[in-house]
Design a protein that fits this description.
The protein contains 9 helices and 8 strands. It is α/β, with parallel strands linked by helices and 275 residues long. The longest helix has 18 residues.
């Protein structure tokens, strides 16, 4: 069985001491690719250093909406330069809107739109963070698609209602579920997870946050735990786990345009092996 964790933050200090052990664990769990998201461009060098150690790691570059205070006149150029100069960059983000206690909505919209423009120019998908802002996020993406052209992406760590989920499916986006879907009271997330078409489904950990059941007592989430997310989704959707794992792997390969035969990939876990 093969899996792709489509959202990790391995550069955080909590992982500094045992990344080699964590890598062994994620490989034993069947992970063959990980997408390392970016909170702000200043952390990108550390992300590159980790990718140098673990060739299954691919990168995103962007500015998180909660860090929009770091957006300057040169941030867009920096993001685009790093995306163009680093072949392991496969997405722009994470970007998006977070209106939970926000007083900078206009600045967030500007940064999000600008990062969508970069993604559009480079042909990359966007990794979208969305909290208490589903309608505004969907409206902005729709306006962008109408005025600037097509753009694809993923609603990461999705926790929206089925109605909100449908908005983003209609925009052509993928939906990625994290450990939240395993939480006992996450009823609307479970309902959304049941309705997402198989060809738009992704899995992630968003580690080090949001450890899934049955590992919620572990304060530090890790990539290997994405297997629990996939297992829960398969049960929830009444699907075969290896089939769901293969489908989400194919989806990740397609969305992020991952290399089809990278030298680090074990022949036993090739793209052909996962369908």
């Amino acid at each position: 069985m093969t899996l792709v964790d489509t959202h990790v933050h391995l550069n955080f200090d909590t992982f500094a001491g045992d990344l080699d052990e964590l890598a062994q664990a994620w490989r034993e769990a069947g992970l063959i690719r990980l997408i390392h998201s970016c909170v702000e461009p200043g952390e990108f060098a550390a992300m590159q250093a980790i990718a140098d150690r673990f060739p299954e790691l691919y990168l995103a570059i962007g500015l998180h909406p909660l860090d929009v205070d770091k957006w300057t006149a040169t941030t867009a150029a920096e993001i685009e330069y790093l995306a163009r100069s680093e072949p392991r960059v496969v997405a722009i983000g994470e970007t998006g809107l977070d209106f939970y206690k926000a007083d900078d909505a206009d600045r967030q919209r500007h940064a999000f739109w600008t990062q969508m423009m970069i993604a559009h120019r480079l042909g990359h998908p966007i990794i979208v963070h969305c909290r208490d802002a589903a309608e505004a996020t969907a409206d902005l993406i729709a306006s962008f698609q109408q005025s600037a052209g097509p753009i694809q992406g993923v609603m990461h760590c999705w926790a929206g209602t089925p109605e909100e989920t449908q908005w983003f499916l209609d925009l052509g986006f993928y939906i990625s579920f994290s450990g939240i879907v395993t939480f006992k009271n996450a009823h609307q997330v479970k309902a959304s997870a049941r309705m997402v078409p198989a060809h738009r489904l992704l899995v992630e950990t968003d580690c080090p946050f949001l450890s899934p059941e049955p590992m919620r007592k572990e304060r530090r989430n890790q990539p290997a735990f994405v297997r629990y997310v996939a297992t829960y989704l398969a049960e929830l959707r009444q699907e075969d786990l290896p089939a769901l794992a293969a489908t989400t792997t194919r989806n990740a390969w397609k969305l992020f345009n991952l290399p089809s035969s990278p030298p680090d990939l074990n022949p036993a876990c090739s793209v052909a092996a996962v369908g």
